[in-house]
Amino acid sequence: MNVIRYLGILAVASVLTGCSMTDITSSIKGNYYLKTGNYDDAEETFRHIVEQDPGSAINQYYLGRFLLAQNNSEEALSHFQKAVTLDRADTDYNFWLGVAYGEQGDLKAEKSQYD
Hints:
By secondary structure, the chain is mainly α. Helix content is about 80%, strand content about 0%.
């Protein structure tokens, strides 16, 4: 019964916030990997997900996060740029794009992204 109630709440929340169940699933997976620090598995998982759905901002974002965590800022940058292009209003995507610019030494682009 609790599982059914939980799924119902998730469904209502996704409708109210405009998030799809796929986005919610990606958030759960992404946050799990961020908490465990298992970035190799996370990268592999999200590479596969992005291959299947390259037009998903959240999946591009998480792949960027895991690449950045492994000091691959150059590749991470391209995924953050795609995430921001797909969803310009998301402040997390913009913030992490700024971080990736900073890691590349592009301080002007980094500051611009934060503004």
